[in-house]
């Protein structure tokens, strides 16, 4: 991950919400599309509400957002459209919610994907995070529920986490809006290309599988030179994901 | 063409590779991801001491899932929420109905007459459409505005998943998911909301079961019917000092019977038509969190109450129009309504009901709230007694005894009342719910099954009760 | 209304109910019997004979008649037809498959096993129904549908009972193994196949919850009884039942930790490490468990016991997740010794 140096004043503006205009459901003429993904119950809708000023239903109960919600905000004269995706544990099983979330990240081509994770349960949340990073490279990790993590005496080194994942990491407590200004600034930096992500790729795959994946992903890459996630497509094709195979056939990836 | 060839090559390659790597691919990949995750966490996270809020969570959990306190606590909370809803809704409901029905309705009548609307237009709009909508709002809004926020507060706190946890093995026996305990409870508020709530069940078979059987939860729109009939007919058969207890017991009995049917049909569905659907189980118990009180109240009002109310109004308006029309359009020397009532009288009798009741249930498919007003209006119309304010104008009476008089004049007996109570539990879902079921399942087949199943059950049960009753008495 | 008599109505109702039950009873109702006989065409019978002959080398016509439920006449006419089509040949009284007949038989076996695999991976039908459904379906699937099915399932090598699935070109992996009753005492093996016929014996195996691919250790084995331990549970079978389980003796380097056990055996306050998920957990269920973090190497302990005993909530990777007993039975663990009661 590379961060271009910022002037002092640019940074100071990031610490207030004043130059953020919450636009609610006004989603016309947007400059960037931002997706909100994450495990169930990590505060995605709370982050969504904090950013857009809307009042999507939030509830302490995994699995309540099924249809996706949309909203918008404006920051430094750029308009961002935000989509709250259903919470999922993974993108590799085939339940309805997972399909909605997966299809949006894959075909909707959001400019930035915010991955909202529960700071107290980072390991479990990284399962989804690492899968998303195989699909898209423009992502921001929103390390939410920091207040709870603190109460549980959990400390997280956000800088080395950001280095490991290759994407910016922002610590937030969305309910009290802590860290939201920084999150917005980071989203905008990634969207504008001021921050370039070098996302982590899954490493611990057994060698003979890795070989098979490589063969297939090379073949896919040759056939569809524009795709950026041929490795992930290879995963899916090897699992016989009919939806992805169909999409390859009709050329939805070009 | 060449591209498709290339594509086929990729598929052929993948088939060959899949054959080579065997069927553990998904396992291996997931393990690899978790191994990466563990490594990253090791480098970046420091856990200082084991305990934190987890200690408090554990204490709450030990109480709410304990052998001694678990079940009483659940029953108490559900009972409390329902009690608060029914009792608490009385006053605002009465206020709303006196405002909408006693003040606004005559006002609208007068003003339409003043502007010179012909009688049929003002009848159609004001007596038909307006009255049905007003009724639905008056009866439906207050209980939902109390029930949903209370329920949502429990949800936000994190208590509801524990209820699913406690109840799961009961539901498992009938092939259902523990979370159905919650969608069912939500159904006591409103079946349409209950059906939407089944989204929390992420196993296809169990979710369908929960959707199809939700109608067996006696919803807010049907409680008033039950209470009214129990008070008039059941309360009257016992000595006066016991009458309120007897009628309360009858209403609770009907609700419990509904739960019994819910279990029975869940079991039957899971063993027959649904047994091939994929079935999985997962239930995460999230940490307890203090709800943000006002925000929760606000969103639950917007999200649940108003949306459901809006849908109900959309459906009630045309129903009001239809009711008014069938009472005012005549075929030969009878209105359509009277004609329909007479033609259904025979079938109604076999079920221990009558034509008026059946017709009321048909035209009131959009909303259970208007069943009693429609029955009263139709009874007055076919018997020709003087009450109410004209044909096609639904009404209700403030005095229970006056209502009783009309019903008895319409030929009602204790059997009729019992069977109407049963039929009010066991009949097709209201059209809002039917529409919601279609929205959620996107399947005509399951929508039809969910709509027909309870009516069939209703016909069978009322038929049996009627025949046996007549043999005994 | 004068002629109304509730007793008559009630009687008519009950007669109707009885009639409906008679017609639609799934076991031997008129409707289903009709469907069955309608399906019992010559093609079905021919294919069933082929399968039978594939599995049994020296069979006479009388054996075939005895083994299959078809009428005498139908079987005879089928055999004649098969002879003329050169699917079978006769050697003295023995009926044998020709090469062509064997190819055909393998195609039917492929259809049967692929369909069982499909039922196990993609539907919610119970194990005990797979066989019968596949018996029907094997006669209905076209070549094209079979290819589609194989592709969908990722060209699986084995069916859910551990039987090899023939490839399209008729190749079939041979599995070496002995039946469980012949494994010597104290030896360690792995269950590689559980036979699903006859139904009565299969039912008993299912009831005992013996799992495919589990590692077993024989404790006692004689004419009366076979006792073995698998996944921390002791099983006792009669030799007749044990014969329907095929095992493979394991080389020392392939032996898993002998202390392995099922997650359902974990006690409160014990901690354990997950070894893996049993092959008996399939399809969507298996994926869910993996997604939820029940992967090799994860630490697990009981978080909450249910007032009605099932499900149990386990603490895994920082979250409390409730599993039903039939799920936790299919997760294998080794208990961590020495760190009990340290909370
Ligand atoms: N303490 C605390 N609670 C939060 C925070 N963010 C969200 N929550 C709560 O976590 C629960 C789940 O949030 P929600 O936005 O519905 O999660 P989603 O399922 O990911 O959309 C709700 O009860 C929120 O009030 C936070 O930063 N701190
Ligand atoms: Mg949400």
TrEMBL record, chain A:
InterPro entries the record matches: FeoB_Cyto, FeoB_GTPase, G_FEOB_dom, GTP-bd, P-loop_NTPase
Classification via SUPFAM superfamilies: P-loop containing nucleoside triphosphate hydrolases
GO cellular component terms given for this protein: plasma membrane
Gene3D superfamilies: 1.10.287.1770, P-loop containing nucleotide triphosphate hydrolases
Source domain of life: Bacteria
PANTHER family, A to Z: FE(2+) TRANSPORTER FEOB, FERROUS IRON TRANSPORT PROTEIN B
Name of protein: Iron transporter FeoB
Automatic annotation (TrEMBL), chain B:
GO molecular function: ferrous iron transmembrane transporter activity
Residue span(s) of domain Nucleoside transporter/FeoB GTPase Gate: 139-227, 309-442
Membrane-spanning intervals of the chain: 68-91, 129-154, 221-238, 245-269, 308-327, 339-364, 370-394, 406-426, 446-469
Highest rank taxon of the organism: Bacteria
Assigned GO CC terms: plasma membrane
Alphabetic keyword roster: Membrane, Transmembrane, Transmembrane helix
InterPro entries: Fe2_transport_prot_B_C, FeoB_GTPase, Gate_dom
Domain Ferrous iron transport protein B C-terminal: from-to ranges: 251-299
Protein name, as recorded: Iron transporter FeoB
Organism in which the protein naturally occurs: Polaribacter glomeratus
Species classification: Bacteria, Pseudomonadati, Bacteroidota, Flavobacteriia, Flavobacteriales
TrEMBL record, chain C:
Swiss-Prot/TrEMBL keywords: Iron, Membrane, Transmembrane, Transmembrane helix
Any one GO molecular function term: transition metal ion binding
Stretches that traverse the bilayer: 6-24
Span of domain Ferrous iron transporter FeoA-like: 178-249, 261-335
Lineage: superkingdom: Bacteria
Pfam families: Fe_dep_repr_C, FeoA
Cross-referenced InterPro entries: DtxR_MntR_Metal-Reg, Fe-transptr_FeoA-like, Fe_dep_repressor, Fe_dep_repressor_sf, FeoA_core_dom, Iron_dep_repressor, Transcriptional_repressor_C, WH-like_DNA-bd_sf
UniProt cross-references to SUPFAM superfamilies, sorted A to Z: C-terminal domain of transcriptional repressors, Iron-dependent repressor protein, dimerization domain, Winged helix' DNA-binding domain
The protein, known as: Ferrous iron transporter FeoA-like domain-containing protein
